[in-house]
Amino acid sequence: MRLVLRRLLWLGPTLLAITLLTFAVLSSALPAEPELADLPLFFNPEPGSVERLSRRALAQVAALEPAPPEAERTLTELGGAALPFVLPALDAQSPEERARVVRALRAVGTRMGLEFDPSWEPSREVLLWTRFWEEHSIDYRPSVAKRAVSRLGQRSTLLRDTEVRQLDTYALEELVAQMPPQGALDLERVRRLAQIAASITGEIQLQISPSADLLQAERIAAAWQDWWSRHRSRYKVYSGTERIAAMLRDTRYGAWVAQAVGRKLGLGHGGRAAWDVLVHGGRVPRPLFFAGVLGAWAGAVASGVFTARRALLFSSAVALLRALLPVLVLAVLVSRWLGPAAGQLWVGALLMGLGGAPLSVPDRMQGPEARTVGFLRTLAALGVTPWRAGLTTVRLSSARLAVQLGAHLSNLLTLTCVVEYVLGLPGLGAETIAALQHPDLNWLMAITVSAVLFAGLWHVFGEWLVSLLDPRWASAADGAEGEA
Amino acid sequence: MTPRRLVNLAALAYLLALLLVSLASDWFSTHSAASAAVLQSELGQAGARDAWAWWMLATRNVLAVSATATLIGALLGAAVGGLAIYGGHGLAGVLSRFAGFIGAFPGLLLVGLFRLGDPSHGVLALLCALSLLRTLEVAQLVRGEVLSAMLGDFVEASRALGASRRWQLRLHVLPRLTRPFLANLLRGGSALIGLEAALSFVGLGLPAGVPSWGGGLAVVARGDGSVPLLMAALSIALTSGALYGLGLSLRPASLGSQNGTPGREGEPASRGAWRRPEAELKEKA
């Protein structure tokens, strides 16, 4: 039991380590999504980069004539969230530098609903921004943003709308946080918040149409939350424990974890949630896998019985025959012979039963197996018939199988995928092979997590089963673990 | 000659023939790398000469990958298994966790991930993944066998008589390790043949233009060409079976003859080993 508990406790760290490793490999091999390209992989030493980005862009815009388009674009994107760092710095700049900065801020001002003179007059625009900041700097606080968004959600008026628009990207966090609908009667509020968020960010595809129902509204709200989890780091300034958490959360791995938790292990290339594909596609590999386990169990029992009858040559010959008929070859021949009729589950299950059997053949007879032979000699000395003695070994063979299958689980899963693929069964194998041929990060991460969890739980189950079937093994394993 | 020995000899002869074919494939096959790719892609319509040339090239490629992965796995596995015993408890724990860690991956996924990580999407990824799988298996075997031998009464007695650790290893441990080690290598080689064929079949093994049994099987699986299909299928089955059969024949004496040494539980590798520590001590004196 101690070993079972230890296995269970190790499951978490193993899962974490495997997802980290897999994510690192996949991220290095696949091009990153454009939205996540700026984020580090696992650790973000400077989360909440709005201050750094806006000061850098400000310095570049102020220093060079003409202003670098990249820096202007950064200021435009950062929008209201950058104003607390840009506008107070205007006083310290020369008139020419100020002129370049306010020209770069024009797009932001237009988005915020500020009215500019069509003719370009730098001093007038500097004055406009200075006055704006004198009047509204107090509004750029989280509590004010929260209240403004909440008021807009309650009822839409021009004033409330203007309040939120003037906060621009500074209000995005609250807009996204308050967006999830509370019920069918809440659609209008969600639509308003989505519309204003879309006009601020330019994500027009994330608006809610007038004919949308509650389900669509929930989907759009979830999409906004995804969007925010990916872009949050650009618009925020963190402090205290939130900053420490953001160092891990505002990374590409963190974005995947957030999506995996919130969106059923993420969306695959086909647009379906990976969890849904796993649940739906799992109907095929489950019976195949258990047919493989059944085949292995039958092989283990037969091996035990033949050992009892000392028919080792026969046992070896059967094992050799199975090795001579690899499942891949059998599956191809069956597929060729039966044609489309081969794509049936029972054919796959039969092949898996045959393929699983060699897994039960031990590498060598040692430890408890040797004890089994001693046990059999004792039975023979007591006058028990060989067949009767063989039957008593079923339990011991099953215990041995439970241990061996843990080691061969990886092979059995691979076998399942291959049989599915060859027979054209619509299961997880074909999906995984397609995802490996045309890499799909979300699906590969999802199948990795599932496989590791399944393997871990199978190991735990195996340990438990062994402790039930043959307590000597459990005590031996406990001793071995202790020594290790 | 017993039937078992006959089968073993036949398996050995077959494997030797395959080895000769792969060594001679470059001389017999005049196809360049580009035409080899065409050869595989048009295997269904290939004539006898082309099918033969494809088979020779495929045999060479498959044996090269499988043998290299087996060899690397054996060397690294023996080293890691030995280190796990003599490198302290921490290393054994790390090995055990790492084996569990990799064991949780389906082989298909592991190879696929290596392939994605390999910019060439080619042989290197396949070789690394197969070697890693073999290394862990061999390391666990070596650790288990050596620990089992070291805990034997005869080793303890030898230690009590003053034998050095090197002496114990040479006289007691290594002879007992040889058979299971070789058996594991052969059975592992058999598994690698099957795994490589399966990976090449699904397009994740050797690159598409490189002839291989699995790749060829994939080409002819649903099309024409019964002869190439039989060639590929028989090659995979016979090679896998031959290696497996030889591995079975090397199982320890406790499964077969009860008189063989080394191999039996609780007994020294050879009777003389009891007296040799004394001789060694005398030499030292």
Shape estimate of chain B: globular
| Helical amount of chain B | over 70%
Order of helices and strands of chain B: HHHHHHHHHHH
| Count of separate structural domains of chain B | 1
Low-confidence stretches of chain A: 363-371
Number of separate strands of chain A:
0
- Broad structural category of chain A: mainly alpha
| CATH architecture descriptor text of chain B | Orthogonal Bundle
The major beta sheet of chain B can be summarized as: none
Number of strands of chain B: 0
Radius of gyration of chain A: 32 Å
Mean pLDDT of chain A: 80
CATH class of chain B: Mainly Alpha
Helical residues, percent of chain A: over 70%
Structural notes for this entry:
Chain A is mainly α. Chain A has 24 helices and no strands. Chain A starts with a helix and ends with a helix. Chain B is globular. Chain B is about 75% helix and about 0% strand. Chain B has helices at about 5-30, 35-40, 50-85, 90-105, 105-115, 125-150, 155-160, 165-200, 215-220, 225-250, 275-285. Chain B is mainly α. Chain B has a single domain, classed as MetI-like fold, CATH 1.10.3720. At the A-B interface, helix 1, helix 17, helix 18, helix 21 and helix 22 of A face helix 4, helix 5, helix 6, helix 8 and helix 9 of B.
